[in-house]
Amino acid sequence: ALLAAGLPVASFADVTCAGADTRHMTAAQGSAPPQLDALRPDTTLVTLGIGGNDLDLPGVLTRCVLLGKLAPLGAPCKRSYTLLGTDEIGARIGATGPKVAAVLAAIQARSPRARVLVVGYPAIVPDDGTSCRPVVPFADGDFAWFRDKQKQLNTMLAQQAAGRGGSYVDAYAPSVGHDACKPQGVRWIEPEETAEATGFHPNAAGHRSTADAALATLNG
């Protein structure tokens, strides 16, 4: 809605739905119809923000908070996802790439004239890897690990956009310094359920920043 307000468009459709993953682009999500059903042959612009729920990012955040409360030192969340030398989150990101590619192919088939913007994720925790346990109760060592996994997710999204003729919207870089650890009025991500937003989701300023990044991408 914010992006549309800054563009000379006669109409737009917002079919975003909380908790959606790539399945819900072509299949119903409860009572909500498939999101791609909103596309038309004459659609000229599509913005797509997807992938985090395919990784169960909310579950990762919940685990990191729980383990951080139980073992505040070290990196227990990272250890739990890298047992025996594995990289479970990295594997999930790798598995999500083809799913995002399939969504982009479906968009192109339904709306061949459309420019497609793949929107990345803003910084949830500090970009410098510092801890802010009184605000976000991760273990000290898990902040940098979570940051790295989020950057890996954004890199995958950028690669998929480039590979399918789309454009990647970098929501991360503008949000550095406005993560969930920052005080109210500075942060763009809420660290818990507030009147501004659901926990670990953007508040109004965060949405405004992402819309500005998308507009800059269109005009770039």
List the helices and strands and how they pair.
Blueprint: H1 2-5, E1 45-48, H2 57-70, H3 76-81, H4 88-110, E2 115-119, H5 142-163, E3 167-169, H6 172-175, H7 204-219
Parallel strand pairs: 1-2, 2-3
Describe, in short, the structure shown.
The chain has helices at 2-5, 57-70, 76-81, 88-110, 142-163, 172-175, 204-219; strands spanning 45-48, 115-119, 167-169. With 220 residues, it is mostly helical.
User: Quick check: average pLDDT?
Assistant: 96
Please give the radius of gyration in angstroms.
18 Å
CATH classification class of the domain at 48-171? Alpha Beta
Largest sheet: 3 strands, parallel
Q: Based on DSSP secondary structure assignment, what is the total number of beta strands?
A: 3
Helix-strand string: HEHHHEHEHH
Q: Which range does the strand content fall in?
A: 5-15%
The total count of helices amounts to: 7
Looking at the chains present, what oligomeric state does this protein adopt? single chain
Strand order of the largest sheet: 1-2-3
**Helix proportion:** 40-55%
